[in-house]
Amino acid sequence: MRRWLLLALLLALALPGVAAAAVPCTPGGAPLPAVPTWEAVNGFPLGERQATNAEIERYVAAVDAASDRVDAGIAGRSVDGRALPVVHVGAPEHVTPAGRRRIGARARALRDARPGTPRVRPDDTAIVWIAAGVHGNEPSATDAHMRILYDLASTTDCARTVRLDRLLTVLFPLQNPDGRVLGQRTNGYRFDLNRDWFARTQPETRVKIDLLERYPPIAFVDGHEQAGDGAFFPPNADPIHHEIPDGPLRQINAVYGPALRAAMDAAGRDYTNYTTYDLFFMGFGDTVPTTLYGAAGMTFEKGGQDVYPAKVQEHGLLADTVLAVAAQGRTALLREWAAQWTAARRQGARGVLEPNVVVQPTNTVRFPVPRERVYAHVLRAGRHAADVAVLAQRLRTVGVEVLRLRGPLRTRMRALGAPRATTVTLPAGTYVVPMDQSRKHWVQALLADDAHVPFPYFYDVSGWSNPLLMGLDGGVLHAPLRAADRRLLRPVGVGASPAPSLPAAPAYAVDADALESLRLVLALQRAGVTVRRASAPFRDRGRRHRRGTAIVAGGSTTRALLRRGAGRHHTAVTALSTASPAGAAPVTVPTPKVAVLRDPTGTVGDTTVPDVGLPLGGPGAAAALAPSEGWVRWLLERELGVDVVRVAETELGTLASRGITTLVVPDAALGAPTLTALGLRAVQDFVRAGGTYVGLRAQGLGVAQAAGLTSARTVAAPRGFQVPGVSIAVRVDDRSPVTWGLGGRSWVFNTGDPIVERGSSRGREAVAYAPAGALVISGYAEGTEVLAGTPVVLDERFGAGRAVIFTVDAAFRGSVEGTERMLANAVLAPPGLGARARPRTATPRVPVRPELVARTVGAAAGATDAVVRVGPADEARLRAAVRTLDLGPAARVTA
Predict the structure, then answer these.
(1) Is 304 inside a domain boundary?
(2) Residues belonging to the active site
(3) Terminal-residue alpha carbon distance, the chain
(4) Could you tell me if 202 and 225 lie in one domain?
(5) Residue 560 is part of a domain; what is its CATH number?
(6) CA distance to 249, 495, 633, 650, 701, per residue, from 638 (Å)
(7) How many domains are there within the chain?
(8) What CA–CA distance (Å, rounded) separates 382 from 882?
(9) Peptidase M14 domain: from which residue to which, for each copy (predicted)?
(10) Residue 451 domain boundaries
(11) What is the pLDDT of residues 528-567, one digit of tens each?
């Protein structure tokens, strides 16, 4: 530790031109004795072992109480209720509430870049964020930042007090307190918080974004651990997203990077640059701070297999170096930070997109950004209007200007996924997101229908267009917005939509073609309101209502609930002339109670991309349930308020007695293990008696196939098939309750998911990939021709129940509203209605050990054939097992 402090001190002293500090100081002064050391508070040297959450919080509170340079608090709570501490450090006048408001307001004004915004002053305070622990099994950076806290709070050395004068440092040491306690990468709901930045599904992420909006930084450090024992810091690997602003990219590579290398070289530490970690996907703790906040966003990795004291020392050295560089270059860095916002406005006004670049010396741009002028993004509100409003709010809450048409606008627009623009008339109510604004880079990065990767390497997914993930309609304007056009536009505010004025009526129709609208439907159910849904489109008072529209009886209580809920959920509610509209054929929606099958395997990290944090079984690793299960439970429990229970295979026989209406089988962590014979039989019995089975991706499909619930056959992926997370165009048949109101063109998110084809029964292909020639893909993929026309969502009747199979993960990371609304529909679907019947000759396929055949085949006798998959060596055992059963003279075993 002493060696690190000496090297960091030498680095700071080597920086020229350190001015006299306003904070009282002495060259080489000793630390203030009133500020407690870590050991004095917690009883052991910092870095000797991993600190607990309680020890981190205890030390923060002790330093906060002892120093007027520190103001600490609880920014929010995790999904499991644990504290998310935040620490503001700086000169005493910086960290008071009034001081923080002043500094934050000044930074926000510079970021907005409105006409008349004053230029950066030499005495402006810059903001720097030092964050850690987003992955709970990567703990060392959090501990290291406690030393940063002590140094800033206790120093009297003029070479260091300059950091207090010039910077407001925000320490966010426990981004994932649940994961740290559980020893796992993800949070309490198995979400990887370093993939959640744009969607902001988790409270931990929302708290962080809210703070960043108040205190936008010029630099953002995100501390991690990786495999091995070496370190990584930028420059990053390619690809770099083309809308990463030039200023912060230059600072990362040419200002901070060289200083970090010098510090690590002086310390004799091993490290790499240009490896593994790109700056592309807009869900990381470096890309989002860089693109949305204009910061020099930097991921710091330290090998998890090194000894713990070394990990703490190196993370401390890297963070300390960033603070030294930011303080020394404060005014120049802040001016460049402020200038990028004005430049973004000018780019947007001209419709200019940034070009693709590469940073690794040996790489070249293979895929340039198309030559296209984009003056605005358009979100049509004719379908899924409530989800469109949710996306508009996602933009507004980070300062993006969003407008809405008050009347029709004739213009040139290229629709999402289309090759060229056409002349269109956009109706009133359409959302328009202009590009001539300071958040231009973020708007393009989030809303573009392709990320335009320059170089085919992916640390994560290759596409994340928010309109496509949400299954929305829209496009980009190829014509500038004229003064006359702007008079048709009104700004969209932050918050709920206005509450509708509802007259008394026999019944009300509630639009239910959006995930946000289904939240309202389920809220009504929880309030005791009987909800019916139209199984066919209908008209009332001259207005057409879609299939799937929710219908609720009138009454003062229901009317009050609707008025409050419609605005909160941005959902259209219409008074009906009758409680039973002609042609609607309404069916009562059952109140769902869902069982989610526990993942029988365990792993660390996200199953859809390599976990290159700590290796399985490495330091700090612990078994965690597959993310798919957590994603499903988050959607159903937290987002929709559905009653959910987790069940093991041994509990599947109790579903009916517990009042379960739906069994969800999520994807598995390690492949797709099927259930035992008894488990498969229990699933069959549950569905045959009227239950709904919902299977997701490989395991959900595999269990359904083994249990004979689906006739779909899996097709082997062809050689060269590569799908690193892309949105793909699909066709939706809305005759299934799973897709009521969702008919037409949409999109699903594919991460190399199973490919299936129709079996002996066609089933109801509720969703299928678009045919060849229309198979538009957002992102980088190869070999996808095989997907054309194949099923994505199947809805088949089995006995009195139904089986709904998603070949994709319908709740992927909680950010795919386009399929999440289908999953919600599946949970609400009446048993069997609208599904295509399975033939009576269906054969449940039961892959089990031969000695378990008696329990399965005997129980199934008289129902259907049983197909048992065994290896050649087990055939004799299988025949012997069957001979022990009393199956009647017609029973036989055929190979």
Answers:
(1) yes
(2) 301
(3) 70
(4) yes
(5) 3.30.70
(6) 38, 20, 8, 26, 25
(7) 5
(8) 59
(9) 49-326
(10) 376-491
(11) 999 999 999 999 999 999 999 999 999 999 999 999 999 9
